[in-house]
Write a structure and sequence with these properties.
single chain; 543 residues; alpha/beta; TIM Barrel; Diaminopimelate Epimerase, Chain A, domain 1; six-stranded mixed sheet; 20 helices; 25 strands; binds zinc ion
Length: 543
């Protein structure tokens, strides 16, 4: 009797224990939690979109009633990947433009434009991705051929970095640009008294405003197609680096309706209307959209020599590049942000731009303890300026594939000495204690595995250079993984809910075909996403 009584108690206790239900259990895997201790678990249980428990195989399998049990067969699981700097709609729009990436010559650029036009007839021909540094003739192209081929249709094709564009005469005419036009923060190339069609930075914007907007249905269709691509490469979170006020409400509408679900931390360009929205709304969330920061652009890109340098370019006498706004304008934005508890995330490429903005940060956040203001790119720094990151808790948000794309010509632009302090990710990590990693897509490809590979190997996809470019700045695999998961979440004030696999956090995770923490460098690029889950929901499956 005594024995029976004891078993009854045990049984009722057991069935109560058993009656815990889970929506999904993963077991027999290598689950990289990315928690503080970098714990690796065998099994994980998920319920209502949240992680409920991680632990040993038996404990999880015996602990829950669950209909949906996945045997990982030792496949690795990581927190959903997070791209800390990208352009979601910029990428979506490329799905509707001439893709000029990887064109081996200007002739190929023209050929791709002609074939695109044969298949699509839009009112403007738009394209993106050419890069003259890949061509035998590394000079910037001019619009002579485009003027002959398309005398009546405007053409605007942007360089891979988005900071330079080639437009034809028709597009110049529409925008009213002549050799005499002057546009602050931009450059219109004029040779022999004639516009060549090459426009840098703000000069291109003055043409872009004439390109008609896509209609609303097509726009959403492209965004959803882009979102599917992002899930397919394992992204569950992105930081959208710059939304104009005219697009802000559209994003709010898409996310409030649930039309888009990838978690988007949207940075607002500080135009007047966005600044008003920021002041009125503060820390704003709807659906999976989160808005709490300004994206400021301080200079251009190194490739098109728009980056602002302290000493002149090594390959262009007396040319320093330029800042895109006055110091006073930058200060006004920082002042507002500091007063409404907003973040400032500033694009800084050149060492002069980095220094100017870090000094402004020092002035406005010096006394604030937890601001998480960021420098986007932090590409070229004067050696003495790394200390700002440590002293003021500034977060570097960097793009490892920019390093392996730019390394072919970075030394030409910067010279032997200065290049040592460019793309210096480990040095930044040493000072800042964290780095957020991204791609800046559509400038680079969308895959976070390419980010991981470039960060740890410092080589391009062809395995060049052997041993890695300035390899002392390669990141460890552990840090690279944190840079694609928990650190960007932290940088957005989102680390309490996501960025690592821990009980109570969102069930955002990916299952890969291979363990990128242990495989060879080469094999990282042959690794694919098996499944992507967002809040416990399967959003991509390779099957
Ligand atoms: Zn960007």
């Amino acid at each position: 009797m005594k024995y029976l009584f004891a078993s009854l108690i045990f049984l009722s206790f057991y069935s109560c224990y058993q009656s815990q239900t889970a929506d999904l259990i993963l077991h027999n895997g290598m689950i990289y939690s990315c928690d503080e201790e970098f714990t690796i678990y065998e099994a994980m249980a998920v319920k209502d979109g949240k992680i409920v428990q991680l632990g040993p195989e038996r404990e999880i399998l015996n602990g829950y009633d669950c209909e949906n049990i996945i045997d990982l067969k030792m496949a690795p699981v990581y927190p959903g990947f997070h791209d800390a700097h990208c352009h979601f709609e910029g990428y979506a729009k490329t799905l509707n433009e001439v893709d000029l990436n990887g064109s081996a010559s200007f002739d190929e650029v023209v050929a791709r434009i002609v074939s695109f036009e044969e298949n699509n007839q839009f009112s403007w021909i738009k394209g993106r991705g050419w890069d003259q540094t890949l061509w035998e003739n590394k000079e910037f192209p001019n619009n002579d051929t485009l003027n002959i081929l398309f005398p009546d249709k405007p053409v605007a094709v942007r360089r891979v970095d988005g900071h330079a564009a080639l437009v034809n005469q028709k597009a110049l005419d529409i925008a009213g640009i002549t050799p005499e036009t002057i546009i602050p923060g931009g450059h219109i190339e004029v040779i022999n008294g004639k516009c060549t069609g090459l426009l840098l930075d703000n000069a291109y914007d003055s043409v872009a405003i004439y390109i008609p907007d896509l209609d609303e249905d097509l726009r959403l269709e492209l965004m959803q197609e882009a979102e599917r691509d992002l899930f397919e490469v394992g992204l569950t979170s992105i930081n959208d680096a710059g939304i104009e006020s005219k697009d802000r409400n559209q994003f709010i509408k898409w996310y409030s309706n649930g039309d888009l679900k990838i978690k988007d931390y949207c940075m607002l360009f500080p135009d007047e209307d966005n600044m008003k929205f920021a002041s009125d709304s503060g820390n704003y969330r709807t659906g999976n959209l989160h808005i709490k920061s300004f994206k400021v652009v301080s200079d251009g890109a190194l490739g098109s020599r728009g980056a602002c340098l302290i000493s002149p370019y090594a390959d262009h006498d007396h040319h320093h590049g330029f800042l895109l706004k006055s110091i006073q304008e930058f200060e006004e934005i920082a002042d507002l942000a500091a007063s409404i508890d907003y973040q400032v995330n500033t694009h800084c490429i050149g060492d002069s731009a980095n220094r100017a903005i870090l000094k402004i940060y020092e002035k406005y956040i010096g006394a604030k303890s937890d601001h998480r203001w960021k420098i986007e790119h932090a590409q070229v720094l004067a050696p003495e300026d790394f200390d700002y990151f440590e002293q003021y808790g500034v977060i570097p948000s960097v793009q490892p594939t920019h390093c392996t794309s730019d390394m072919r010509w970075a030394e030409d632009r910067l010279g032997k000495e200065r290049v040592k302090f460019a793309y210096a990710y480990q040095q930044l990590l040493d000072k800042a204690g964290l780095v957020a990693l991204g791609t800046d897509f559509p400038i680079e490809r969308i895959s976070p595995l390419e980010t991981f590979y470039a960060a740890v190997s410092r080589m391009n996809r062809e395995g060049f250079p052997e041993g890695g470019f300035q390899n002392e700045n390669a990141l460890s695999r552990e840090d690279a993984l944190r840079g694609m998961t928990i650190w960007p979440a932290y940088s957005n004030f989102e680390n309490a809910n996501k960025g690592s696999l821990e009980a109570g956090k969102d069930a955002d995770f990916v299952i890969l075909t291979r363990d990128i923490m242990t495989c060879t460098f080469e094999d990282i690029l042959k690794t694919y996403v098996e499944r992507t889950y967002l809040n416990g929901e399967l959003v991509y499956s390779a099957e």
